[in-house]
Specification:
2 copies of one chain form a homodimer.
Chain A: H1 5-28, H2 35-41, H3 46-52, H4 56-79, H5 85-99, H6 103-117, H7 119-143, H8 152-172, H9 178-193
Chain B binds a DNA duplex (30 and 30 nucleotides) through residues 4-6, 9-10, 13, 34-36, 44-52, 55-56.
DNA sequence: CTCCTTCGCGTACCGTTGGTATGTGAAGGT
DNA sequence: ACCTTCACATACCAACGGTACGCGAAGGAG
């Protein structure tokens, strides 16, 4: 069913298209890359592209989904290596910072995505991919009394936004211990949430 | 010198162009607005537009500069109403949140700007417009011992990113006391920076 | 007042872009 | 052996950002 020469070729074309367009979008930005360049790099034509994706925006959406899943998986894997919910939160945040330091992830997920898809859709995708986990972790910590009772949504957005911007800055920072300093400051903020 | 019929007409055309394009960019986003629509709304032609601006991107840059100055002025005015550096910081952050709740400001300054101009240029403009003041306030507080000695740059980016994302979320939040809850959480984080 | 220059802007046009309609040949069922 | 379906190629289009050039009014020089 999922097999056959035609299905295999289809999958391969789609994967090549995603791979090449992701490479180009990541290196030069969504707006600066034309479809002609993409289909040329993938050694196909626009007909093939539009057979797999509804539009240039739809292609970008598929790439973003892929990037977000990769980041979310790294964060989840790191967090699940710990038992204590508080350590899960801190380790998850560290893992997110590390994953977001990848230039590809930054250009696609943090810079272009909100402008290309609109903030609302970007937000919805980020929610289901990673912000949901963050909110859940915070809820758990509130439930067990580690964090003072308070609405989790504002907290989620403040932390998410802080880490996103910090990751973008780290990419251009020349100071070799900028990552350590950033983590120290973020850790300081997280500690502030602990019940006194 | 700055007067004369020709100079007055020039200024008026430029201002009309900025006003209309800002309105359109803010309401539908940079990518979804064409130059034809802009010059039509301003009752001029593309010749006039390109006489005042080098490109569509350059037009956007001029608008962004204007928006950032407005926000920065509101923040500075609020901060300077206080004497205590700590109150200047907190009041400034509150003012920034309030100013960034304007949908026009969000679409132009927070959503489109990084993608249109690239993160580096956006960062540079934000730096000279408002982030510089934030960093200065933090430096002052460190110098006077209110905040523990630490690098200010990571702190600046964490706080700036947190406030940006929070402002975007507040725009879509239905909960009427979302602003209060957000400020409570942010205030909690700021308090954490105070020397123990 | 006259002449010439400059300036602000309009007109006409171009190359490229995202998107579409249609053709085509191989794969797969019957 | 036949017909359908599918994956993709080809050819084309409207709209876009951008440019070259023309034109009329404003302003300085004599």
């Amino acid at each position: 069913m999922t097999d056959g020469a035609r299905a295999r070729r289809r999958e391969q074309t789609r994967r090549t298209l995603l791979r090449e367009s992701r490479r180009l979008f990541a290196s030069r930005g969504y707006g600066a890359v034309g479809l002609a360049e993409i289909v040329d790099a993938a050694a196909v034509t626009k007909g093939a592209l539009y057979h797999h994706f509804d539009s240039k925006t739809d292609l970008f959406r598929a790439i973003l989904e892929q990037v977000q899943q990769e980041v979310a998986q790294k964060v989840a894997a790191t967090a699940q290596a710990h038992d204590d919910p508080w350590e899960q939160l801190t380790a998850g945040c560290r893992a997110f910072l590390a994953a977001s330091s990848d230039p590809d992830v930054q250009q696609i997920m943090l810079i272009d995505a909100p402008a290309v898809l609109g903030w609302a859709e970007w937000r919805a995708m980020d929610e289901s991919a990673s912000a949901h986990h963050l909110a859940e972790a915070l809820s758990t910590l509130i439930a067990q009394g580690t964090i003072a009772p308070q609405p989790v949504e504002p907290l989620t957005h403040l932390l998410s936004g802080a880490m996103n911007e910090a990751a973008l800055w780290l990419a251009t920072a020349t100071d070799p211990n900028a990552l350590a300093a950033t983590w120290a400051a973020l850790s300081q903020m997280l500690e502030a949430l602990r019940h006194r």
